[in-house]
User: Fold Type IV fimbrial biogenesis protein PilN from Thauera phenylacetica B4P.
Amino acid sequence: MTRINLLPHRIAKRRQRRQQFYALAAGMVLLGALIGFGVHMIYAGYIEHQEARNAFLKEEIVRIDRDIAEIRRLREQIDAMLARKQVIESLQGTRAETVHLFNELAQRLPDGVYLKSTKQTGRQVRVVGLAQSNARVSHFMRNVEASAFLEQPRLIEAKAVMQDNRRLSEFTLDIAIRPPVEAEPEAGASAPKAGAKGAQK
Assistant:
């Protein structure tokens, strides 16, 4: 009977399988390294892209902060200019009102009454004057009440004083300036015109 020794063939087969295993393991390691490198590169790209976006957003935030500061500065300048404009307009309005006030006071002063000082605070005027008698002060107050520009005279103090060897009455009076009358609406203004036309007929 013929005997065949298979030992060298088995050793060779085992060696071939071991080489295949090593080659497969090396291939798997290499493939894993390539996959890891690829994933690392992808994530590095994502991170770089995100960092670029963050840097862009930071630059935009800085630019917007500068714009906001500039807008705030311009708004403060506009507010200051509007405040100055309002002051100028109020001064222009009160300039004519002051002239009217002095003119009205001069017209309403009866004989025997003299003003020493006037002080205006808003729509209120305080006058200090001398009168030959308390009756002349009352006359002055009635003249003020009849004025279309002044109203609500209120006597604060009246006392007797001696001046140039004469006994006079020194008085302090608060007077209100009437608010400006609002213009009538156009509809009301058109009614007299219609009546005038009817009268012409």
